[in-house]
Amino acid sequence: MDELIQQVLSEVMRLADPNSEYDYEEYEQLTELRQKLVDAIESKSQPLNDQQKQQVLKILSYDDPIMSRMGALLKEAERELRSVHVAKKQQVAYNYSGMSEGFMFDKKK
To answer: Which of the residue ranges 27-31, 41-45, 60-64, 70-74 would you say has the lowest mean pLDDT?
Structure first.
C-alpha cells in the first residue's frame, strides 16, 4: 500500500509541475493509477495509518492544478475537433458536383 501511495504521489507531483507540459495519455495513466489506489484503499480491511493519510491528503492537494491542465487539454481537443468538422464541411461543399446525371431537354412544339 505504501508503495502504491508513493507512486501516485510522485506521479501527481510530476504532472502538476506548471513548467512542464504533458499529453493526455500521461494524465490518463495517472487516473488509472489513482483508481488502483482507491480500489486498494476500499478493499483494505484495516484503516490507513497517519502517515498514509497524510500522503493521500498531499495527493489530493494537487487536484486543482491537475484538473486545470486536464481541462486545458479537453478544450484543445474540442478546438481541434471543431476545425476538423469545419474542414470536412468545406471540402464537401467544394467537391459538390450537383446532379451529374439529371439532364432535361424541352422540345418545342
So the answer is: 41-45
Cβ 59 vs Cβ 38: under 8 Å: no
* 98: alpha, beta or left? (left if phi > 0; alpha if psi -120 to 50): left
Alpha-carbon distance of 56 to 54, in angstroms, equals 5
Q: How many residues does the chain have?
A: 109
Q: Any alpha helices (H) in 16-49, and if so which ranges?
A: 24-43
Place of cell 501516485: 8
Take residue 21 and report the three cell numbers written for it: 507540459
Cell of 90: 468545406
CA-closest candidate to residue 54, choices 4, 3, 7, 9: 9
pLDDT digits (tens, 9 = 90+) for 60-96: 999 999 998 999 889 999 999 999 988 888 877 777 6
Cell of 62: 494537487
